Amino acid sequence: MLQNMLDNGAILSMDEVCNSYNGILQLHGTPDQVTNRTLKKKILNHVPNVEFSRPQQNKCEQVCSTATKDAAVGHAADVQKDSRKELQDVFKSAKIIRRHI
């Protein structure tokens, strides 16, 4: 289930994953609860091509597929390149306008 979600590009918080996993354990009559740290170890051992990241302080760690992370980083780099080009165009336009004033 987790593998399918990650393969489809989902980015999940470890709290969500842990709560779901513990819910499944309870449905099957297992009284034990799994911590985020223990579940992270299980995921790393059993789910291929998975990445963990902590977005900001006081935020829960997130899990996603390596492909999703690579796509997000690539998109961020493209957006930054586009922003630089747009900023250069604005500065050139401002320079031309100042000359004519």
Task: Give an account of the 3D structure.
- By secondary structure, this protein is mainly alpha-helical.
- The chain is 64% helix and 10% strand.
- It contains four helices and three strands.
- Strands 1-3-2 form a three-stranded antiparallel beta sheet.
Q: Give me the strand/helix succession.
A: HEHHEEH
Structural class: mainly alpha
| Biggest sheet overview | 3 strands, antiparallel
- The total of helices stands at 4
Report the principal-axis shape: elongated
Radius of gyration, taken over Cα atoms and rounded to an integer in Å: 22 Å
* Fraction in beta strands: 5-15%
Number of E strands: 3
Kindly state the mean pLDDT as a whole number?
82
In terms of per-residue confidence, which ranges show pLDDT below 50 for 5 or more consecutive residues?
none
Topology, please?
Elements: H1 2-7, E1 12-13, H2 14-27, H3 36-46, E2 50-53, E3 62-65, H4 66-99
Antiparallel strand pairs: 1-3, 2-3
Characterize this entry briefly.
This protein has 101 residues and is mainly alpha-helical.
Key features of this structure:
101 residues, mainly alpha, 3-stranded antiparallel beta sheet, 4 helices, 64% helix
